[in-house]
Amino acid sequence: MAASSHESARRSNLFLAVIVVALAACLPFVVKDVYLQNVLVLTLMYAALSQSWNILSGYCGQISLGHALYFGIGAYATLLLFTKFGVLPWFGMIAGGGVAAVVAAAVGYPCFRLKGHYFVIATIVIAEAGLLLMLNWDWAGAAMGIEVPVRGDSWAKFQFARSKLPYFYFALGLAFVAWLVTWKIEDSRWGYWWRAVKDNAEAAESLGVVVFRSKMAAAAVSAFLTAVGGGFYAQFVSYIDPESVMSFQFSLLMALPAVLGGIGTLWGPAVGAAILIPITEVTRSYAGGTGKGFDLIVYGLLVMGIALGRPEGIVGAFTARKRAKAS
Amino acid sequence: MSALLEVRDLTQRFGGLVANADVSIDVNKGEILGLIGPNGAGKSTLFNAIAGVRKPTEGRIAFEGRDVTDLGAPERCALGIARTFQVVKSFETMSVVENVMVGAFQRTASSRVAREKAREVLEFTGLAAREKAMANELTPPEKRRLEVARALATEPKLLLLDEAMTGLTPAEARQGVELVRTVRARGVTIVMVEHVMEIVMPLVDRAVVLDLGRVIAEGKPADIVRDERVITAYLGERHRARDA
Predict the structure, then answer these.
(1) Which of A298, A273, A207 is nearest to A52 (CA)?
(2) Which of A229, A241, A237 is nearest to A159 (CA)?
(3) Potential cystine with A52: which of A224, A226, A256, A281 (Cβ 3.0-4.6 Å)?
């Protein structure tokens, strides 16, 4: 009986996700303003990115503040493959994901021997090193960056000058896929192993979990999805340079929605992104002129509020209340 | 009788400190072996060497005739050695059944099978009613049980219990003893490190006494408590006074 309650909880989550996606798909019919549509695309993209980040940092507990590296790899791989070799962005995004997964494993090999704060610092430093490399790599455009050559609106080439809608639906699909991957992993052996590694690595080892390998697997999946998001972003903005896709800010923007919404929870990243990204974008555009960084102050305050009041995030607070009621 | 676990001439040094010196013990299939000794005797060090947490400086460990000295904890778990921790290490953000599932995944990749297995073990260890509770909501004796449940879910041939009764009330400890007996009845061999003599002695088939890193006595509980060296090293004046 209890088995079915677990299964039905999972099914209702899936059902809820389908409804949310269906409702979100209707948004562009209500929101016609191009600027606001732009905000919606970014919100969905960050929901997807944060969901990817959450796999490594939320479920497996390895807090990364260097995911801009994988985001950048995805963006660069997609555009370089297209401009230099004519590879369609669809394949470019997948290839970028593959490269990012390999890089994540290579980065993880030394870094996963570090614990806690030392690991976090290492991820920041490595992402910065990646940024410096790209700034100096002439073939990849160095500091000048790369532009998407305009070839007219086309699904194959994934570029649309006249409408934001195709980007919107792709971003929605990406967010849903990232959610689905998380949903699937949550009830898989890897999912349980990752949470065990997060909670107590020594106990996990005693139960047969190879901690190092688990972290590597989480990093690879997380990096792959992040890079696909990076490839999408490159197509969306159609021009990238190292600062605009690999700066530290992206690493933060991937982490914050999950932290706000509930780290290591299925819905946390989406809830967090839905709150955080619109606030960020709107304060940036309306208060951007008054002094740089006002938007950063706003979400700094939000995160502080969460850290002080509800460290487990919005979703965490909600489930805690539900549990308290049930018992 | 063939030994399930053989420890040969095991020495563990930490810098200048010798925690274990030339320790050799055999653990026979199906028995409950007590590992006792005063504080600092090297029980935990030996325990960790058997569990694969730390490689010994010298000596070999064989399990079912196979040399496992160079294997880490996960590999030993796969071969059938499971352990509990003296200071409980529950997966605090996971529910009770999920805690046990982590162990069950040692033998299956399917979460459905792992969940069923975990439920069965929870039933057996008397935690079935708490399966949905979060691990951090459990009482101390329940947490001890969870440690055992999690280890049992890996389907071990050898279960290492590290002071599993510490901190329990006498009534809780009696239930703990019952659990250990039923586990053994299922065919699991048990090595237990224990401080509380009143618990160990009636429960174990054989005891190994460590003092200052060395084995000073080995044998049936009844003989051990009469051994002069053991009495001076460990049981101390209190026990002697009672005999008098």
Answers:
(1) A273
(2) A237
(3) A226
Residue of A nearest to B130 (CA): A327
Give the up-direction half-sphere exposure of residue A112: CA atoms within 13 A in the CB hemisphere: 25
Residue contact B111–A188, C-beta within 8 A: yes
Output the pLDDT for position A31.
86
Domain region containing A224: 2-326
Place of tokens 């599993």: B164
Strands B66-67 and B58-63: antiparallel
Token output for A163:
């409408």
pTM for the full predicted model? 0.90
Instruction: Tally Cβ neighbours within 10 Å of residue A185.
Output: 19
d(CA A149, CA A159): 10
Whether the pLDDT of residue A65 is over 60: the answer is yes
Helix ranges (H only) for A56-208 are 68-85, 89-111, 116-136, 165-186, 189-199, 201-206
- CA B80, CA B88: separation in Å to the nearest integer? 21
Residues of A in Cβ contact (< 8 Å) with B93: 195, 198-199, 264
Return d(Cα B237, Cα A133) in angstroms, integer: 71
Q: Tell me which DSSP letter residue A148 carries.
A: P
The answer to whether the CB of B121 falls within 8 A of the CB of B100 is: yes
What CATH architecture applies to the domain B3-80+156-243?
A: 3-Layer(aba) Sandwich (3.40)
Q: Which two tokens stand for residue A70?
A: 């994988």
Where are the domains positioned within chain B? 3-80+156-243
Chain B residues whose C-beta is within 8 A of a chain A C-beta are 51, 53, 72-74, 77-78, 82-83, 85, 89-94, 98, 101-103, 105-106, 109, 111-112, 114-116, 119, 131-132, 134, 150-151, 153-154
Q: Quote the pLDDT of residue B224.
A: 86
Domain count across chain A: 1
> A310 to each of A118, A133, A316, B63, how far by Cα in Å?
25, 39, 8, 48
Judge whether A285 and A278 are in contact, CB under 8 Å.
Answer: no
The 10s digit of each residue's pLDDT in B171-228 is 888 899 999 999 999 999 999 998 777 778 889 999 999 988 999 989 998 888 888 8
Distance (Å, whole) CA A109 – CA A115? 13
Which alpha helices (DSSP H) does A238-291 contain, by range? 242-246, 248-261, 268-287
Q: Closest approach of chain B CAs to the CA of A201, in angstroms?
A: 9
CATH of the domain at A110: 1.10.3470
* ipTM here: 0.90
Residue B18 above 60 pLDDT?
yes
In whole angstroms, give the CA distance from residue A164 to residue A28: 9
